[in-house]
């Protein structure tokens, strides 16, 4: 099919669901609702025939490693989210990044990853923009700082994914 599956990964509380909600529904909730796994389907423009963008919003919990693995195996592109207010959440992405590379291979062209530092609206920071960018260049992936709360770079993030989708995976 022409469907393009995006998987959103990262520790609990970093704002994965908030980013997806902001983009899909245009709103933001302060309350924390734990996710197990949600999927969203957004139709792409008519140039994409019947294709759609599927977004899988995963859980960070260790109990759901199997679901996470399956989502990664089926994914075409990945959003790795940490919170700029908590350094640990950036470190916790490393095993997920490695699992993606293990399951999908090492070609960044074939399997785009975007590293996202969310909550950039917060004044209390543990991760600077420079530090986030350094991880991204080490992992050979794109990088953005976002705020689901203040609606910063959320459109840009999903636009980046749509642009990946437009380029055939073979056009390296
Ligand atoms: P998830 O577990 O990664 O899905 O995290 P959630 O999307 O449920 O968000 C966890 C908490 O962080 C919630 O209380 C959100 O309101 C808050 N949050 C999410 N995104 C942002 C953001 O961009 N800025 C701030 N300040 N808080 C956020
Ligand atoms: Mg969630």
Question: How does this model look, in words?
Answer:
With 172 residues, the protein is α/β, with parallel strands linked by helices. It has six helices and six strands, in the order βαββαβααβαβα. A six-stranded mixed β-sheet has the order 2-3-1-4-5-6, sandwiched between helices. The longest helix is centred in the C-terminal third of the chain and has 13 residues. The radius of gyration is 15 Å and the shape is globular. The protein binds guanosine-5'-diphosphate (GDP) and magnesium ion.
How is this fold's topology laid out?
Layout: E1 4-9, H1 16-25, E2 38-43, E3 52-57, H2 65-74, E4 77-83, H3 87-91, H4 93-104, E5 113-118, H5 129-138, E6 142-145, H6 154-166
Parallel strand pairs: 1-3, 1-4, 4-5, 5-6
Antiparallel strand pairs: 2-3
The structure holds guanosine-5'-diphosphate and magnesium ion.
Guanosine-5'-diphosphate (GDP) binds next to α1.
Characteristics:
single chain, 172 residues, alpha/beta, 6 helices, 20% strand, globular, binds guanosine-5'-diphosphate, binds magnesium ion
């Amino acid at each position: 099919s022409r469907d393009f599956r995006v998987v959103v990964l990262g520790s609990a509380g970093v704002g994965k669901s908030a980013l997806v909600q902001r983009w899909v529904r245009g709103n933001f909730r302060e309350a924390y609702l734990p996710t197990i796994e949600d999927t969203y389907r957004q139709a792409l423009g008519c140039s994409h025939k019947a294709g759609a963008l599927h977004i899988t919003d995963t859980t960070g919990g260790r109990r759901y490693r199997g679901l996470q693995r399956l989502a990664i195996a089926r994914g075409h592109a990945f959003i790795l989210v940490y919170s700029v207010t908590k350094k640990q959440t950036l470190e916790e992405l490393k095993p997920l990044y490695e699992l993606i590379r293990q399951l999908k291979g090492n070609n960044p062209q074939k399997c785009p990853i975007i590293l996202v530092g969310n909550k950039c609206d917060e004044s209390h920071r543990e991760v600077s923009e420079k530090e986030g960018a350094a991880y991204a260049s080490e992992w050979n992936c794109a990088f953005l700082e976002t705020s689901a709360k203040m609606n910063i770079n959320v459109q840009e993030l999903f636009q980046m994914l749509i642009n990946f989708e437009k380029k055939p995976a073979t056009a390296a």
